[in-house]
Amino acid sequence: MKEKYISIAIDGPAAAGKSTIAKGVADILGFTYVDTGAMYRAYTYYVLQRQVNPQDEVAVSRLKDEVNIDLNADGTILLNGEDVTKAIRLSDINQNVSYIASYKEVRLHLVAEQQKLAENKSVVMDGRDIGTYVLPNADVKIFLVADVKTRAIRRHEENLQKGITSKLEQIEKELKRRDEIDSGRAFAPLKKADDAVYLDSSSLNIEQVIAGVLEIINEKIGLEV
Questions:
Q1: Which architecture characterizes domain 7-218 according to CATH?
Q2: Domain locations in the chain as residue ranges
Q3: N or C, where is the chain less crowded by C-beta within 10 Å?
């Protein structure tokens, strides 16, 4: 009998804490963490390195077969063998990733890779459209949100901790713009799946959110830790 793998989908807007929470939950459960946002960021990095206009959908989509992205267990992101873990968090990536992520051919290419990862292992996967499009049959779906001011402060502090130059006002503007693009795109937009559990993390710390997610998982599929 084929082993039953479990999939946990965590969606929500940029800087809602999805990656931190998803990784924490995956570590506790012993599942594989899949950071889909990092995949789109790495693709965006490649587009900019190739000096292709990120708003030229046709030109950007043509690059898909040149992009090889590896998500390592230690959290490092490799793009065609190059460690781009830090580079994909810089401001020029923030300003352009939503354009790249809105292009149908790019999404189809990366979604196929994401779905392969969930076929042969239990995963916690976060993104914008995991529960609605990438893993519509996920065992547990969570829609994680926080107000934009809180998200901006979190991203700003995260950047500073990583030694990345950061301006709070600029981050808040970028997040508002990204929310509009992500929610308004025609193909696989950011939205809550009908069967997802809504979780607002605005007034919660990391440990509290992780505990809340684990409680939801236990309630949905009886997976205790």
A1: 3-Layer(aba) Sandwich (3.40)
A2: 7-218
A3: N
The dihedral region occupied by 174, where left means phi > 0, alpha psi between -120 and 50, and beta the remainder, is alpha
pLDDT of residue 2: 55
Which stretches of the chain score pLDDT less than 70? 1-3
Angle at 158 between CA 155 and CA 159, to 5 degrees: 85
Distance of CA 93 to the CA centre of its chain: 14
CB distance 7 to 59 below 8 Å: no
User: What are the C-alpha distances in Å from 71 to residues 116, 121, 155, 180?
Assistant: 13, 15, 21, 28
Beta strands, E only, 84-175? 123-127, 140-145
Q: Please give the DSSP secondary-structure letter assigned to residue 158.
A: H
For position 225, what pLDDT does the model report?
A: 72
What's the pLDDT score for residue 223?
85
Model confidence pLDDT, tens digit, residues 169-187: 999 999 999 899 889 988 8
- Give the bridge partners for 11, in sequence order: 127, 143
Total-model pTM: 0.86
Strands 32-35 and 123-127: parallel
Q: How many residues belong to the chain?
A: 225
Query: Could you identify the residue written with the tokens 């025609």?
Result: 186
> Taking every pair of C-alpha atoms in the chain, what is the biggest distance, in angstroms?
54
Sign of the torsion formed by the C-alpha atoms of 166, 177, 181 and 209: positive
